[in-house]
């Protein structure tokens, strides 16, 4: 395994460092994962995570079968469960909650309604759907040592990327994810001092490495090597560090994706604060998904992990130095020409004035005001539109 090790010429911090969370974007994706995961979906190292998802893949069998050859029957016990007889396997296969919904979707049956039916009646409806299924073929994923479960049922062209393949790609740059390389589970922001502490024990409460029976999600940062990109209003350094999160589902519940960014802090409930330069790639599990992962996603992750922050710092510096407004008329004209309404223009200018102690002058000032306005929006579409405008401004200044 090849992984990026610590550069002896870069001196990591030995204690926490002060950050400014009022700038940049706030992203709640990791917090949503942290909040919703039960203890049995939380892992304390990449090794433990990889072992878990690789083990279940080794116990799994994927096959493409004729849909009309799949037999659906109701169990004869008191539980009234459905079971499937799949070509090539003698024992019955029990659908999971997830695969039952997929099966209903493939045959055009509403899963919420089908779940309410008695098992014999649901079996009759599903059998009819499979016999008249226009695609003729389905791809199944079965797993289990004793009782065999149907983990997924998809169309025949579903391009599976295994969860352990994504975790292994991350291990190549992050080792165990606990500090043996620069990439690690993040520390925590102390709101009382506004200092981000990188040195926090990885526990079930703090970990950002997750896997369920239908997906995997992980978030790592390089928060022991903060990057200075300009100064705050009081003259102290504006510090960032790098981070990325990645996700996948080998059973078809979501795409594969990787998001990389610079950020200023991670709080206890795993919200990301002060995010800049957010980039994301996603790969649908289509026919050639595995090739795209090998030739696009994995190299992109390696490139970000090993890249220099110099272009990012230069871009921030250029945006800070590019003065575009010196008067109130200039400020209003700059924003109105870029599609902001009069009330939005007023709020952006006031936000910068309140946070910086002066009205916006540089491109960077306006970007921070726009992202602050975006954070106040309840609707995601509006927030993303504003963040997109801020990002384009910053890119043009670089």
Provide the descriptors you would attach to this structure in a database record.
398 residues; alpha+beta; eight-stranded antiparallel β-sheet; four-stranded mixed β-sheet; 12 helices; 24% strand; elongated; disordered N terminus
Written overview of the protein:
By secondary structure, this protein is an alpha+beta fold. The protein folds into three domains: 17-55 and 161-307, no CATH class; 60-143, no CATH class; 317-397, no CATH class. Helix content is 37%, strand content 24%. It is built from twelve helices and 17 strands. Strands 2, 3, 12, 13, 14, 15, 16 and 17 form an eight-stranded antiparallel sheet that branches. Strands 4-8-9-7 form a four-stranded mixed sheet. It has a three-stranded antiparallel sheet with strand order 1-11-10, with no helix packed on it. The model is unreliable at 1-9 (pLDDT under 50).
Q: Specify the biggest β-sheet.
A: 8 strands, antiparallel
Number of helical stretches of at least 4 residues: 12
Number of strands: 17
Helical coverage, percent range: 25-40%
Residue-averaged pLDDT: 88
Provide the structure class: alpha+beta
SS strand fraction: 15-25%
Radius of gyration: 25 Å
Distance N to C terminus: 36 Å
What's the helix-strand series? EEHEHEEEEHHHEEHEEEEEEEEHHHHHH
Give the oligomeric state of the chains in this entry, treating copies of one chain as homo and distinct chains as hetero: single chain
What's the layout of helices and strands?
Blueprint: E1 17-18, E2 25-27, H1 29-36, E3 42-43, H2 46-58, E4 60-66, E5 71-74, E6 82-85, E7 94-95, H3 97-107, H4 111-116, H5 119-131, E8 137-143, E9 149-154, H6 163-174, E10 188-190, E11 195-197, E12 209-211, E13 216-231, E14 237-248, E15 256-263, E16 265-266, E17 272-283, H7 289-306, H8 310-321, H9 328-336, H10 342-356, H11 363-375, H12 380-397
Parallel strand pairs: 7-9
Antiparallel strand pairs: 1-11, 2-17, 3-12, 4-8, 5-6, 8-9, 10-11, 12-13, 13-14, 14-15, 15-17, 16-17
Helix pairs in contact: 2-6, 6-7, 9-10, 10-11, 11-12
